[in-house]
Amino acid sequence: MGNTLKDETQLTEYVNSEAVDMANMNLVITNNEEYEGAAETIKDIKRKRDVVLDFFKPMKDNAYKAHKEICAREKEMTKIFDDAEKALKAAMATYAEALEKERKAEEERLKAEAEAEKEKILAQALKLEEEGKTEEAQELLNTLGVIEDMGTDIVVEGEKPTANGAYATKSWEITNIDLSKVPCEVLGMIIRPVDEAMVKKLIRESKGTIQIPGITYKETLNVCVRK
After folding, report:
1. Are the C-beta atoms of residues 186 and 160 closer than 8 Å to each other?
2. Kind of pairing between the strands at 185-186 and 166-177
3. Which pLDDT belongs to residue 110?
4. How far is CA 197 from CA 119, 183, 212, in A?
5. Which of 59, 103, 141, 181 satisfies CB 3.0 to 4.6 Å to 213 for a cystine?
6. How far apart are CA 42 and CA 48, in angstroms?
7. What is the overall mean pLDDT for the chain?
8. What phi-psi label fits residue 162: left (phi over 0), alpha (psi between -120 and 50 degrees) or beta?
9. Which residues sit opposite 185 in a β-bridge?
10. pLDDT tens digits, residue range 113-152?
11. Contact (Cβ atoms closer than 8 angstroms) between residue 20 and residue 36
12. Is the alpha carbon torsion for 204, 207, 210, 213 positive or negative?
């Protein structure tokens, strides 16, 4: 019948007539002649199936072309909103990062003060020891444990930006890789040749605390806003 099908009515009649013929096929093969006949029938079936595919191909091609054109137009129309959202999220992330930077700076300042106080006490204790005031020196040294604990436990909460439906997530961006320094294995994970996906997984799981020779990375904030 070739590609002479004009509409779906003819297509339906064609398929239904072939369906009747195939329903009456002999599916029991008892000799090589019937085996060869089955092979030829399959070839004929494939040709007839192609008739159906050829019938729908122009419609599929037109639908695909229309879909691409619609998607391109949609993207063109939504781009202004996507760009505005991206710019606003970047501004929000910059603000949140600035607050986090302030928080960390204050935390480091307090830890530095605690360390300075520790050094001061050590110096005073040493001086008392040199003066023969052993008991007074020991009393000062006894306070060091408290100061060390305080320095270790210092956590500054700091100000966090809040908005209904908005939240920020941390991620880490690899900024440089020195192949001459990167080890083959880290925490049981093979990362050579340098597997950036595996490196990022290690960074995420350590919450940005892991140090990998040859790998430099930085923390970034991603802002999400729900509708």
Report:
1. no
2. unpaired
3. 86
4. 43, 15, 14
5. 181
6. 10
7. 85
8. beta
9. 190
10. 888 888 888 888 888 888 888 888 787 777 776 666 665 6
11. no
12. positive
> Which residue reads 């890789």 in tokens?
177
Whether the pLDDT of residue 2 is over 50: the answer is: no
Q: Can you list the positions of beta strands (E) in the chain?
A: 166-177, 185-186, 189-190, 215-225
Residue 221 CA to chain centroid, in angstroms?
13
If one counts every other C-beta atom within 10 angstroms of the C-beta of residue 67, the result is: 10
Query: In angstroms, rounded to a whole number, what is the distance separating the alpha carbons of residues 144 and 44?
Result: 92
Report how far apart, in Å, the C-alpha atoms of 121 and of each of 118, 127, 143 are: 5, 10, 8
Rg (CA), the chain: 37
Q: Environment class of residue 215 by beta-carbon count within 10 Å: exposed (0-12), middle (13-18) or buried (19+)?
A: buried
pLDDT digits (tens, 9 = 90+) for 181-198: 888 888 888 787 888 998
Which among 208, 212, 203 is positioned nearest to 183, based on CA atoms? 212
Place of tokens 């191909």: 57
Of 173, 159, 161, nearest to 225 by C-alpha is: 161
Phi, then psi, of 119 in degrees rounded to 5: -65, -35
Burial (Cβ within 10 Å: 0-12, 13-18, ≥19) of residue 24: exposed
* Residue that the structure tokens 């080890």 belong to: 183
> What are the counts of helices (DSSP H) followed by strands (DSSP E) for the chain?
5, 4
pLDDT confidence tier of residue 51, bands split at 50, 70 and 90 = confident
